[in-house]
Amino acid sequence: MEVFIVEDNENVREALAGYLRLEGLEVSEFGAINPAESALKRSSPDLIILDVMLPDGDGFQLAKRIRKTRETPFLFLTARDQESDRITGLELGADDYVVKPFSPKEVVLRVLAILRRTGNHETESADRASRFLLEGRELTISEETHQILVDGKPLALTAAEWNILLYLVHHRPQLFSRLRLLESCLGSLAEGSERTIDTHIKNIRRKLDNEAWIETVRGFGYRFVGEEAERKE
After folding, report:
1. Per-10-residue mean pLDDT for the chain, 233 residues long?
2. Which residue, 13, 64, 90, 98, has most beta carbons within 10 Å?
3. CATH 3.40.50.2300 region(s) of the chain?
4. Where in the sequence of the chain do the CATH 1.10.10.10 domains occur?
5. Domain 2-118 is of which CATH architecture?
């Protein structure tokens, strides 16, 4: 598996790359946005570690361009610790957000966790997918292949979005508070604010193209309301 590191601080970049290579990962290093974008035209990394403030541009803007063509997981590195910046990163589909200064070992552990959650898993049983119906729409979830279909069309979720949706589906029709979802679904992101969950739910609903799949109970939280259909033989 290959990881891109886009970070202008050479010491930080080399430290992260060294630890990642010890884990058996291929690593490509970039000190600015332009060379990273050129490399993305030739390669498809499994994850991108992206600094927010780079000498030739804003990492948030690069993330927006990446999201137009691919769903590669990415992790933000930044010296900005304001909640608004974290929310911006999550709205762009980031799988994690790490504030400087940080331990390279911690970042590597987060990277490995993301890769585990987003990795493709082979299966011999393609018909074990669960199907849900709502207002004439069909949602199909296969945990074995890590695939979600909406009316037969593939849906791309970030690792965090996948975890939240799957948790709500597994425990339907139970209602969960934002804090419970934060603690149960986001793992290393659990130090974030409860508003983080609102951002992820908004992104999931947008991708599902129907807000009704996830109900908001004001003052309490969220629950999944789709009805499970009989499995196809």
Report:
1. 92 90 90 93 90 89 85 83 70 79 84 75 48 90 82 84 89 89 68 76 91 91 87 51
2. 90
3. 2-118
4. 130-228
5. 3-Layer(aba) Sandwich (3.40)
Q: What are phi and psi of 190, to 5 degrees?
A: -65, -10
Q: What is the spatial distance between Cα 184 and Cα 83, in angstroms, rounded to a whole number?
A: 20
In the block, tokens 């060379």 appear at 35
State residue 3's pLDDT score: 93
- Following DSSP, what letter does each residue of the chain receive, concatenated? -EEEEE-S-HHHHHHHHHHHHHTT-EEEEESSHHHHHHHHTT---SEEEEESEETTEEHHHHHHHHHHH----EEEEES---HHHHHHHHHTT-SEEEESS--HHHHHHHHHHHHHHHS----S-TT--EEEEETTEEEEEETTTTEEEETTEEE---HHHHHHHHHHHHTTT--B-HHHHHHHH-GGGTTS-THHHHHHHHHHHHHHT-GGGEEEETTTEEEE-PEEPPPP-
CB atoms closer than 10 angstroms to residue 58 = 13
Q: Which residues of 211-221 are buried (b: 16+ CB within 10 A; e: fewer)?
A: eebbeeeeeeb
Q: DSSP assignment of 79-133, as one string? A: S---HHHHHHHHHTT-SEEEESS--HHHHHHHHHHHHHHHS----S-TT--EEEE
pLDDT of residue 181: 87
